[in-house]
Amino acid sequence: MMSKDVTCEECGKVCSSRHTLWDHRRNHVKKHLCDNTKCQLKTPPVRFATTKDLQRHQQVHHHSRKKRICSHCQIELAWRLDNYKRHLNTYHNGGIIAAVCKGDEEVVRWLLVNFPGCANKRDGGKRTPLFLAASLGFEKIVGLLLDNGVDIEERSLLIRRGAETNYKTRMLDTASSRALMDWDYHKDSDLSRSSQDFASRGS
């Protein structure tokens, strides 16, 4: 039978020794009070068992340093870099650059719909998603980017960087031609519609 000397009076937990009981009691006696006004007005006031727990709370919730802004969704995040990386991996999976590099057409499409401006983002080497998609041979993603209004003059960047191969040239020419053909088709459709309207009005 265990001695009463190692039983917690607060919750009745039986500890293995007086030392572990002393450690356990600290969980009930949270003497480190947060000095933030909002935390003090809460019922009960926000308290912590250890100084480290209090410091961690203050750094996350009351840190006066500038916050990071997510480049994809513009949400404000705590300054710590690991929080920012976790947010990117959880919500954006590294953003459009990572999705293009993986050849993940579905994620690229989702990002273009939900964050239209992301198509012009650049990676650390100043490379755009279009440049990366063409360089890696992801023709469908090149088409997706062009369909979503990415400037087809990006091809000149490929030439300047010396990264244009015959395959990439052919791919971009195909994608550019497709974009121009679509434009010509819509233009011709509009013209034929206008001429039909004019003819029907004349009859």
Protein topology:
Elements lengths: L17 H11 L3 E2 L3 H5 L5 E2 L2 H11 L6 E2 L6 E2 L3 H12 L2 H8 L2 H10 L14 H8 L2 H9 L6 H7 L5 H37 L1
Antiparallel strand pairs: 1-2, 3-4
Characterize the structure shown:
Helices cover 58% and strands 4% of the residues. The chain contains 10 helices and 4 strands, in the order H-E-H-E-H-E-E-H-H-H-H-H-H-H. About 3% of the residues have low confidence. A two-stranded antiparallel sheet has the order 1-2. Strands 3-4 form a two-stranded antiparallel sheet. It is elongated, with a radius of gyration of 30 Å. With 203 residues, it is mainly α. It has 2 domains: 46 residues, Double Stranded RNA Binding Domain; 98 residues, Serine Threonine Protein Phosphatase 5, Tetratricopeptide repeat.
